[in-house]
Inverse folding.
């Protein structure tokens, strides 16, 4: 039976859900707080089952067309000396292809596919929701009202709707500053070769996008509040990389002076229940695993497909579908959030001793050991891929 489904948040999770649910014949309305979508955003690596699902949706070719070349990653110490050169081709032999793409590029692929097929209300948010008789009554910003059979909350890490309607959920401060930005201008970096510097309490990556553009991403351990981070970001970046090469210092200066950076603190979302009545959490709003899991975008896409799968099984019983979605996702969420903690300890070590120990392990491990180290944590079981609950 056709349902009226409102999706609050038109990010990657929300658009994926919109595509899947629209194809099942449901009426979809997306509520989006921004005034319009754009292609800006930092780089994400879509891996494993995330790429597989995009392929199933018929969007892989568009994904590849928007991707950034990634053939090798040079892992370096703070002096710029090589710890290890990793070939993505070798790493990916144990898993599906990974695709390096800007978040805006991935979003654009999904948006273009559903544009004109579903209604999108820009510059709109949910002010209030009340459930009654299997329906969700919604008051929108601006005073408009709506009634839906189900509401999907996919507003991202700092979801206001989650905080209001899932008060038992928690947003854990991961104590990691994230900064991402892109610089236009001629550069001499080799296309397809990513340089990542490992250091105590910090990590810096340089991604050549073209001969005229590079992207920079860095992570810094800090316990400061986000508001203070924003006010001190330039001084913080310069201080943390002041002992690096002149080339790196120049990039840090250029990216901070450009004003084109995205700065946030990583957070990990813990929700005891992913649904309340006919309101359900999806993607980062419900289970953000942080970028340190390497699977944030893929998990959002998988979650959308899982939700659509269970709704297709129980088209007339939303409650049963949401119970199954909740049961399937919880152990998967736990796995990727634990992976994120382990990766943070390894790749952003808290002491010189930990850095030395991990660098030695990374440098001396066999190619097969490194491949497994990088990819074993990215996979789902055969049952999970088929949405079978054990």
């Amino acid at each position: 039976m056709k349902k009226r489904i409102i999706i609050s948040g038109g990010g990657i999770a929300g658009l994926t859900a919109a595509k899947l649910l629209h194809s099942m014949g449901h009426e979809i309305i997306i509520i989006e707080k921004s005034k319009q979508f754009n292609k800006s955003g930092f780089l994400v690596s879509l891996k494993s089952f995330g790429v597989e699902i995009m392929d199933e949706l018929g969007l892989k070719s568009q994904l590849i067309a928007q991707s950034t070349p990634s053939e090798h990653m040079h892992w370096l110490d703070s002096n710029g000396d090589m710890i290890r050169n990793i070939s993505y081709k070798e790493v990916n032999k144990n898993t599906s292809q990974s695709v390096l793409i800007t978040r805006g590029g991935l979003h654009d692929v999904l948006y273009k596919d559903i544009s004109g097929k579903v209604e999108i209300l820009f510059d709109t948010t949910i002010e209030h929701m009340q459930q009654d008789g299997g329906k969700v009554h919604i008051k929108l910003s601006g005073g408009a009202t709506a009634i839906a059979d189900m509401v999907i909350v996919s507003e991202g890490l700092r979801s206001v709707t989650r905080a209001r309607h899932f008060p038992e959920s928690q947003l854990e401060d991961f104590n990691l500053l994230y900064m991402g930005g892109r610089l236009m201008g001629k550069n001499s970096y080799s296309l397809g070769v990513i340089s990542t510097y490992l250091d105590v309490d910090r990590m810096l990556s340089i991604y050549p996008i073209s001969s005229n553009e590079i992207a920079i991403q860095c992570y810094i351990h800090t316990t400061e509040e986000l508001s203070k981070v924003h006010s001190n970001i330039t001084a913080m970046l310069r201080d943390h990389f002041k002992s690096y090469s002149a080339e790196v210092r120049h990039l840090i200066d250029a990216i901070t002076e450009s004003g084109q950076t995205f700065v946030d603190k990583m957070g990990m979302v813990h929700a005891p229940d992913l649904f309340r009545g006919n309101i359900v959490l999806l993607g980062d709003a419900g289970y953000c695993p942080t970028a340190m899991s390497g699977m944030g975008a893929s998990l959002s896409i998988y979650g959308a497909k899982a939700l659509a799968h269970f709704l297709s099984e129980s088209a007339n019983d939303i409650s049963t579908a949401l119970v199954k979605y909740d049961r399937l996702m919880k152990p998967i969420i736990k796995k990727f959030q634990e992976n994120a903690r382990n990766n943070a300890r390894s790749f952003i070590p808290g002491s010189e001793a930990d850095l030395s120990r991990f660098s030695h392990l990374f440098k001396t491990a066999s190619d097969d050991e490194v491949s497994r180290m990088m990819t074993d944590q990215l996979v789902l079981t055969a049952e999970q891929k088929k949405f079978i609950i054990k």
